[in-house]
């Protein structure tokens, strides 16, 4: 990661790819770039689960809290979709993913205002993560089986997007 940060500081974008093991299929990509806001990292992680395995959805709030507290999380969207456990893509249509959760990091919560951000979805109160003085907010949309989660994600991001200050 040191090489990527040095490249980003010199305005050279970097894209890293990591692959898991056959017994635990995973693919992660990290795009690191120098922007007006500083060094930004965009991370995508896909983890495969066998048909009989239940994805550890209960771990998502703790993961979000750790990323917000220790790694300057800005936003995180988690999704679930039926697919091959080895993460390969077949040559036919597969169902799209369904959002599980949306997390807004402490900087964004502070910028938008805690009270305003909590009201993003009237029927869904977010979990407050991290320190009370500088919390992140985590919205859970379900277990990945109800496609209405896309509408909830859109409602949250549209509501919160209207409050962003222009740079």
UniProtKB/TrEMBL annotation:
Name of the molecule in the record: DUF6177 family protein
Database matches in Pfam families: DUF6177
Species of the source: Streptomyces mauvecolor
Lineage, top ranks: Bacteria, Bacillati, Actinomycetota, Actinomycetes, Kitasatosporales
Highest taxon listed in the record's lineage: Bacteria
């Amino acid at each position: 990661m040191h090489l990527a940060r040095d490249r980003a500081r010199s305005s050279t974008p970097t894209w890293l790819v990591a692959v898991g093991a056959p017994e635990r299929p995973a693919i992660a990509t990290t795009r690191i770039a120098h922007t007006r806001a500083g060094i930004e990292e965009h991370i995508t992680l896909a983890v495969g689960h066998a048909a009989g395995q239940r994805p550890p959805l209960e771990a998502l709030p703790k993961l979000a809290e750790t990323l917000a507290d220790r790694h300057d999380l800005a936003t995180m969207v988690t999704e679930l979709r039926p697919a091959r456990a080895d993460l390969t893509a077949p040559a036919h249509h597969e169902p799209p993913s369904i959002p599980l959760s949306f997390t807004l990091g402490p900087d964004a919560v502070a910028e938008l205002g805690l009270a305003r951000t909590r009201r993003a979805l009237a029927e869904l109160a977010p979990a407050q993560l991290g320190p009370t003085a500088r919390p992140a907010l985590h919205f859970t949309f379900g277990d990945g089986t109800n496609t209405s989660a896309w509408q909830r994600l859109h409602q949250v991001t549209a509501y919160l997007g209207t409050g962003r200050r222009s740079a």
